[in-house]
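Homework help board

Subject: predicted structure for assignment chain

Our instructor gave us this sequence and asked us to write out the predicted structure in token form, then describe one feature. I got the tokens but I'm not sure how to describe them. Can anyone check?
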Amino acid sequence: LPDNVSELRPPPAATRGASLGISPALYDIFQEEARTHIATLHREFSELVADPSRPTPFAMLRAVHTLAGIAGTVGIAVIRTLGVALEHALLRRETTENPADAESLERVRQAIVALESMADSVAAGHPPETDPDLLDTLDALYPPPAAESAEFPELPGITAETGDAAPALPSCAADASPTDEAPWPEEVQDY
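My token output:
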């Protein structure tokens, strides 16, 4: 226990998140959501390790996606970057030849622990630190199957000859009749 009992109390509302440039309201939202999503990552990872041949749980993907998003919203780039890297690695896991690879799963665990540590730093009012090696490792996890081609699929409405053909309008747009009325109020049109 700290010598000073006041260290156990959360900071006053006006200073929460201020040292990181985050408004107190967003800081509180981030803290609550980060704890929830990190707990989900730990729980789902434990289940994944118990049966590594199963697909990546949707709840795990949603948790890391949302954690990265809320970190981006409040401006914590290092958590957002690591979250996105983990999300992409987990998405690639679905198409890899060896999704149960123990070394890869260990890297996923390390990323979850790092996200938790970063969120703890934010909770303590300190900027979180990043691990560039972990980011590089996540980027290399779960390569696509060897049979996959590096070519992009052909998109409907775009040909290799022109490359610039516009896709057809949806039927609702094609049925719309033009009107002489401006779509916005007059004061908006002046901008």
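Reply (TA_rk): Your tokens look well-formed. For the description, you could write something like this. The longest helix spans residues 24-50. That's the kind of observation they're looking for.
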